[in-house]
Amino acid sequence: MSEDELKQLIVAAIQEVAPEIEESDIDPDEDIREECDIDSMDFLNFLAELKKNSGVTIPEADYPQVNTLTKMLKYMAERLG
Question: Which of 23, 49, 52, 62 could pair covalently with 13 via S-S, beta carbons 3.0-4.6 A apart?
Answer without folding.
Answer: 49
